[in-house]
Each structure stands twice: as structure tokens, then as C-alpha cells.
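Q: Can I see a sequence and its folded structure?
A: Here is a first one.
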Amino acid sequence: MELRHLRHFVALAEEEHFGRAAERVFVVQQALSNSIRNLEDEVGVPLVLRTTRRVQLTPAGREFLIGARETLAQAAQTVERARRAARGEVGHLTVGFVSGLAFGGLPEIVRSFRELYPNVSVDLRELTAQEQEAALRGGQIELGLMLLPVRDPGFDSRPLWRQPLVAALPAGHPLARKRRLKVGDLAGERFVFFPRHLRATYFDQVMRWCAASGFTPNVVQEAIEIPTLLSLVAAGIGVFLPIEFFSRLALPGVVYRPLEDAPVVEIVAVWRREAGRDPTLRAFLTVAREALEKGEDK
């Protein structure tokens, strides 16, 4: 039994006339008549009573009409679900992110994506860049959001956002009186920073940048999380060089100053190369880029 047979039968039942039903489904009348006979042969009972003026359904035909309509509706829903999946409008996506993005970037992305794709389930997992790389290889996440690109031939990546570094200073620090700083101004300062093994790429970039200005940061205290590091700054233990969007964390005792010669850090999306055709992943990337660009315009 084919769906076209059901469509022909429903059209005939509703039009009660072979000629009008044939026109409705865009076939010749003889083809429609043959389709109904084939359907009756398969069902094994008469479904219609043929008269000179109109067509009437048998009791079996009336019952069959109910099921035919339900089947066609279900088929239409199934087709639409497949089309929506192909457009990335339904499904599931597991996204890893480095902790700092929770304070800038990630909320905008997730909010915009859920507004546009409410039927996609997004599972967020806070992971370091190294943990994201391992999770991508192991299939635990489909997409990673991290700072700086990953150099791996099995991954593809796309820059989403570019952010300069800023100086986070204790509120009473003499340098806080200036509106803008140069990195060389920090040469004699004590620093707080991440342990290198947690954010090696970021750590090394900052160290190279400072070395180009003639000094190596004197890191006197390490911490894992951004809020902890900023709390150490507020306590006067040292200065910190976060990415600009962390300046949204208005902690008492911390001031932020732009750096004239600051390097720009990329926030990138990373995924396994073979997953690049997934429509849900592509939709998320598009929304992420647009959401972050809107944030920059504000």
C-alpha cells in the first residue's frame, strides 16, 4: 500500500466524484479509478459504492478514511521532522566552553540560539581547552569554545570573536590613575595568573608579549578560576591580564585599564572535521558569530 493510494482515496471520499478527485490529485480519471481498485484489492473489501451520479463510501470505507487521514498526517509530520533536522532546527548539541566565556560571550550565544532553535537541546559543559580537545576526540562533545586555535589536523575551527587583553589592577594602585597603560608599565609588578598546564597557549602568549617589552612577569600567586584571580587582584596581591570581556565582572577593589599595545586573543569554535556537515552544528556557529558581533556593536 502506497501513500499515493491513500491520497487518491481521501480525495475521492471528499469530492464524491471521480472526475473532480482526479483533477485534485493531478491524474487522469482512469488512473484514479485503477488506484482505488488496487487499494480495494489490497484491503480485501469494497471501500466505495459507485453510482452514476456520485461516489459513496461503504461502512468499511468510512472507517478506512479515518485511518487514511491519520496516516497521511503522520507521514507529513515525519517528512517535516526530517526537513527540520536537515535545517538544524531539531536535535541535540553538546558544547564545551572554557570557564571565562561564562562571563562574556556564552550567555549571548546560548540565548540567541535558544530563541531561534527552541527544539534543539543544548548541553553545556565547562572544560579547559585541553579537556575540550580530549572530549572532541572521544565524542563526548560536538563543539568546543575556547581561546586561541587548536593545531590538530583532525579538527576544524572558526574564529568567532577577537578580544584584546586589559590590565586588572587593585583599585588603589598608582597605575589605576592612568586612563590607558602600556604593557611595559607593568614590568615591576607582581602578577597573579593561571597555572601554565591549564591554559598553556594563553600563558605562553602573554609571556612572549611581556618578553617583547623587556620583562618576564613575576607570578606570585596562581589560581584556576577568573573570579578567584580577580579577587586576588582586589586583595592587592598582584595584577592580572584578562581578556577585555572579563572587565564586565565589576568586583569591588578591581579596576580595568586598556593597554595600548595589547595583543588580540581569538575566541574560536572547534569541532571534529568529519562533523562539519552537521546542520545543527552549522546553525550554532552562525548564531554564535552573529550574537557576538551584535555584542561588539553595543
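Q: Show me another, different protein.
A: A second, unrelated one:
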Amino acid sequence: MQTSFWDNVRFGGGIGLNFGSGFFAGNLAPIGVYRFNEYVSTGVGLNFAYTSERNFYDSFVVGGSFLGFFNPIREIQISTEFQQSYVNRTFDANVPFTDEKYWVPAIFLGLGYTTNNVTVGIQYDLLYDRNRSIYADSWFPFVRVLF
């Protein structure tokens, strides 16, 4: 029996919200993945993020990524991702910083545990730069859902 291209495509991604006293961060990261076999998948993704801290700054990020997944066994996922993002950071007038607009790359290596459609794990950014990265740390957890 022959399968069509779309039988091997899965969609999903991640979503996040973080808020506190005068702080808000939200992100949306849809992805599309093509599964070659039970071990190897590849795909593309988009990322959108907005962060705001009252009386300090607003930041808007948009970007794209190429992803690769390897599952040596069904429950374990090794991932790689190249992400390129455009950052637009605007500081409030009373803050002694200059507004910024720049591109920032990231290369992630990740390890996750998969059950059904959900993978939970940790990633490391090989190109992490604490002054330019859109992430607070080079290590961070992730949750990825594919349907």
C-alpha cells in the first residue's frame, strides 16, 4: 500500500505565557514535520514572541527554523534546530538604553522523552550570547506537541 506525502506530515509546536508584576511574555512556535521513517523526521518552524516589562521595554521577535529529529527508540528523541530570529527591542524614554534591531542565530541540541504526541525535554543553544540571545539562558526546557 502506497502512502501519500501528507500521510507522513505532522503539525504542532509550542505556546508559552509568562507574566508577573509589570511583566508579560508570550510566544507561539508552530512547526510542520515530515516523518521519513520511525527513526528520522525533519521539518520547519516559525517563532513569534512578545515581551514587555512596564516602564522598561517592549520586545518583538519573529523568526524561522529548520529542525531534525532522531528517535533511537520510540520514547527518546534527539533533536537539532537551526533558528534565525529578528529582534526589535524598544526601551522606554526613561531608560538609559538604545533601541535595538538585529538578527540572532541559534543552534539547539536537545534530548527529550516522548509519549504519544508530546515530547518533554531540555535544549542547549550552541551559539548562546547573553547580550543578544532571545533566551535567558543557554539551557532551557521545552514541550513539543505534534498531531
